Amino acid sequence: MSINLALILSVLTAVSGVVVAFNRFYYQKKIEASGGSGNRAINILIEYSRSFFPVLLFVLIIRSFIFEPFRIPSGSMMPTLLQGDYIFVKKYSYGLRWPVIDKKFFATGSPERGDVVVFRLPSDPSINYIKRVVGLPGDTVTYRDHQLFINGQQMPLTKHPDTRLQESGLIFIEVLDGREHEIRISRPGSRATERAYTVTEGHYFMMGDNRDNSQDSRYIGEIPETHLVGEAVRIWMHMDGLEWPQWSRIGTKIQ
Prior knowledge:
The chain is α+β, with helices and mostly antiparallel strands. About 25% of the residues lie in helices and about 35% in strands. It has two domains: about 5-65; about 70-250, Umud Fragment, subunit A. The chain has helices at about 5-35, 40-65, 215-220; strands at about 65-70, 85-90, 95, 105, 115-120, 125-135, 140-145, 145-150, 155, 155-160, 170-175, 180-185, 195-200, 205, 225, 230-240. It has a seven-stranded antiparallel sheet with strand order 1-2-16-5-6-14-15. Strands 9-8-7-13 form a four-stranded antiparallel sheet, with no helix packed on it. Strand 7 and strand 8 form a beta hairpin. Helix 1 packs antiparallel against helix 2 (about 40-65). The chain is elongated, with a radius of gyration of 24 Å.
């Protein structure tokens, strides 16, 4: 059972805000007029609400419209992101949405090819995935023998010069619209089945950087624009289990 943090935070903010407004516009004036001290339980509720409402409102605004933290639960985005990375997702990259109902009310931009994006899984919107945008609306995406083709044009792919990175698979540098990033191929000798996908309007084709171990649009289908959460921009912590944090990853920009 998943916990809807956005709903909980919204309810707590609304309730505390109502209590503060009740006190400001009615209860406080009533107590002053009567010359009494008021009900003790109500007074305690008001004091707590006045203390927590500004904090809850601030957190709700930041989390809903600016940045939201996420944890990477798997290795599907290796080597770009590792299991145990904690990242910031920029919520306003692709539009501002109301919390809980996820309805866009202000457009700010659209995903570009190469963006690393968090989105809600179409088959179960309570689950968040993170992948890289490789196909835009109208594109034809072809994956042939570990090579990515967009509208018939092969995306540049070169082997990473650092041989120390090749222990658990081959690391390549891929270029999407002039933007470089690393991908991992764990079965370099295998011949992947060729598939071609046409991206429909209002949708995006996502792939993980760990190309042989990623449950992405090749299997779950293209992702509707309505399911986008935001753009992953920076790592703020790495801690996997009880291990010490990897300090070198803190603050790393996600390419």
